[in-house]
Amino acid sequence: MTVDHSECSEGKHYANSYFGDQPLNRVSFLREDETFLKLALEYSKTQYIPFFQGEALVDGSKGKLYRVGEVGDSYDSSAVFTLIKETVSAEDFGLIKANNPNKSHTHLIFLGLDSTTAYAKEFIYKEQYSGTPIFAINFADKVETDYIQNDSVTKLTFQSVFNDLTDNMEASLYSHARMYTQWSTKFKRCVECGEEIQFIHGGSKWVCTRSQCPLSDPLQHRNNAAYPRTDPVVITAIVNRDWSKCCLARSKRSIGKGIIMYSTVAGFMEPGETIESSCQREVWEETGIDVKYKDITIVKSQPWPYPQNLMIGCIATVDFNGQNEIIDLNHDPELLDAQWFDTRDLTNSLATYESGFLLPLKLDNAKYSLDPEITVQLPGKNAIAYDLVTYVVKKFEETV
Prior knowledge:
The protein has helices spanning 34-42, 79-87, 158-164, 168-184, 275-287, 343-351, 384-399, and strands at 47-52, 55-59, 64-65, 68-69, 106-114, 124-125, 129-130, 132-139, 153-155, 197-200, 205-208, 231-240, 245-251, 259-261, 265-268, 296-304, 309-318, 335-342, 358-360, 375-379. The chain is an alpha+beta fold. Strands 1, 2, 3, 4, 5, 8 and 9 form a 7-stranded mixed beta sheet that branches. Strands 12, 13, 15, 16, 17 and 18 form a 6-stranded mixed beta sheet that branches. A 3-stranded mixed beta sheet has the order 14-20-19.
């Protein structure tokens, strides 16, 4: 399997969304293959991405996720690697000792095969599946500082991810692993009967340890409860027909003194909704703007590992007729403000933006009745909201 890892020609945002590249061949069909898992765990050059209490580490000297392994690259034998080898047993495929959350407080996850290492072709299974095996392992009851004495290796935080993992391949690998670790920390007992659970299939599924549990009965149609979940979120840029206006909203959440952020409208999809109907509902509930189902366009998506979301980026096109475009914030009190911004004003801001968690908007604050002392921001290039606004700006430029 090959994946296009290139960036956009402008070099300012990723061809795939941030977190959205696929650095590994997941070979998901091999997760149930105990022979494969045993070989992967016995292989001397297998690499591990350690998590402590649900969060990974970054090697600041390299700008990469901290990995450990016995040999290869710059990954070294360490106290963390010793801890992993003491916890993971190839004899039981790493699925018993390492994957009972009630006993070991540990979750081992097979992530996939990495074809980019210097020795990727040395591990081959069934004469066709090659690459360095990569596992993530989360120690729910341990602290990283007890095992790491390297000052350049630190625990990631929400903000530091975007500053430290500027390589989208590394960020995407982090997102992949974190979504599994966050999912696994939510379960210690069966949701049907309350008995202890056990992670299987390379850590990608849990089963109840009670043999007669209803969850194990295929006729009950409950098996999806045992797999990782991804919560879909629709995130929408609202525009008029000629792209000259874009509605952005400000939530009631504070992001810092003297700073306000306007962004696209977002909300969780509800059961029984299509993407289009969810987008239509969220736009109306939050802004009062009436957009027709047929005028919803799906643009791109982004995995978002906080904790396990899939952001589905859309454009909602509104015909201005004196009614459809009227903003009304009285339905859902989530927003503090929403306004129609001139796309040309957004264009001027994006033209000089290079990087950063936030993008300063170069606006005439008085034009939008904003405090002149306040700095107005948009989400930066790591967020799909930025991609959507960029999409709107490019469409506008094509019309003028």
